[in-house]
Amino acid sequence: MTTTTARPTAAPPPAVIWARRHLFRTPLDAALTVIFGALALYVAFRLARFVLVTARWDIIATNLKLLMVGNWDTVHLPRIAIALAVLTTLGGLIAGLIHARQVRRGTAVGMKLSPRRIGDLTRRFGLLVATVLLLLALTTTTGPWVMMAGVAVGGVLGRVVGGWLGRRRYRRSVAVAGVLAMALVPVALYRYLVDAVPLAEWEGFFFNITAAMAGIILCFPLGVLLALGRRSKLPLLRTMATVYIEIVRGSPLFVLLLLANVSLEFFVPPSIAPSKTVRAIVVFTIFTAAYLAEIVRGGLQSVPRGQEEAAKSLGLSPLTQMSRIVLPQALRNVIPAQIGQFISLFKDTTLAGLGLGILDMLTVSDAITQQPGFVGQRLIIETLTFTAFLFWVGSFTMSRESQRLERKLGVGTR
Hints:
By secondary structure, the chain is mainly α. The protein has three domains: 30 residues; 227 residues, MetI-like fold (Orthogonal Bundle); 123 residues, no CATH class. Helix 9 crosses helix 13 and helix 13 crosses helix 15. It starts with 13 loop residues before the first helix and ends in a 5-residue tail after the last helix.
């Protein structure tokens, strides 16, 4: 008598296991998967058909310069290219210094291009590179290609030099001098650009980016000071910070922009009144600082009191306790909320066109549809889609980089 043994059945592929567990776990899950999957495919088909077939992108290609920099004189466009190349070189230098310091501490590996590192770089910068290539494909001159080549070379060169300098040890005085020198570079670039084109004439997407960057840089220290002032034990300082925060947070941003456009000259002579671009940056700064102050205050409250008590027991001064112990932990805990507010500021720069009459990208995208060659052809969908895409790329990149920073700092983990 012979006995037969059952053959072991082969395990299903991992994709099948994942689909059963997440998409078809129950009959209701299966029905929802089919319905919403079909809806997603339909939306994707219509979007792809619009982008690749029906849309007329010639209005974007014809007016790409207006959309990006407005009426910036063509003669001075190389100044923007030089400024971008210097900034990317500076960014690469800082990244190289930070990475070299992490390598010395054993928290990072070297600069070898392993498949894992290539994948990480692709996830971080792939969307930005694809967007830049798309913009370059819409151009008809070689100038933008030369500019982006200089930007790429500057970034790589700065990264290499930063890594080389970071492997060497310098005295503290030399390091401080280097930091001050790098901090002066953006100021020098600003003067370099303003000498050619006044700040009041910065338009298009260039205005949106620069206004958002200026607002972020200026509102962060102001927001931190307001948060500390609201927690101060001095009644006058606490009252002033509280009144500022509550009044500004209770006022719509668009109303503040209108007041800056209409009411400022009732109090300040027109001859000395700042330009509309400066007014927009000031309004963005004071508005975002009020929201950021509450975010930072929430982060300060999340730090256990034991941290401050331990710092006191060590004999640290109140300034050292706050700057070295409490505030770094508070800022680390609220990174997602901070980045969310910065993204909101970046998108809110489009209100400057309506509130102050600045020719930002959204205003340009509406104005170019009234040109003689495109008037009455209902091309506003193409221009708004292009504008929304660029803002989404910027916002998504900021969000992904904040998530990467959270993982590196261990936000939300014990």
